[in-house]
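ESCALATION

Customer reports they have been waiting on this structure for their group meeting. Please prioritize. Original submission:
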Amino acid sequence: MEYGIQLYSVRDMTQNDFEGAVRQVAALGYKSVEPAGFFGRTAEQVNALMEETGLRISGTHSPLLDLVNKYEETLAFHKAIKNPCYIVPGYSMKNQAEIDGFVNYVNDLAPKLEKEGITLAFHNHAREFIPNADGSVAMEQIVCRTNLKLEVDTYWAFVGMKNPVSFLERVQDRLIAVHMKDGSPDGHGTPLGRGDAPVAEVYEWVKAHNIPMVVESETCTPDGMTEAKICIEYLKSLEG
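Update from on-call: job pushed to the front of the queue and completed.
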């Protein structure tokens, strides 16, 4: 099995030593990375680091408004690093008007990016599953009003709607990856295997459906790299 890692997991290191963090996650056995920012590195520097470590970029967590406000510049960078998937890591959708704005943006941008060889996708948190004060539910409308691909964060799906596997079943044709994550029902993350989320059940479903797995661990306790090590060791323990 091959596992990727969202580099937000080691943000305590990437902000000061991006190259060192990437080298260390490669040494832990991760095969791909999902950057959440490049800290001023050029596309040439990013490509050289990927070649050096043998890693590949599976996608990025990048702001939707970068595409809205500076499309050509943003597109050029992501094409230069051969990014296959531009993943929006979150967006304010706390009422129907905000949901409408998001839907309009992604329905315009997704086909443009597809023509350039880049998939536009969305990464959820718990809040998209929970009805807003006006009764609108963001995730329901994302599923029904867009063709957006999804990177389901299975821990936040657990917090928001309790049964992440049922949601994976529903949207399996839209999945580009899943975030493997653990934590408590009240929204406090932990390394994999140390929380209450149904990680083993999720793992079996994802493995059976051949969906790429990307680790994300959020608390940096005692530090991000230690959590990254715990997570990949736990996943390997599930391989059977």
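Sent to customer with the following note: The mean pLDDT is 97.
Escalation resolved.
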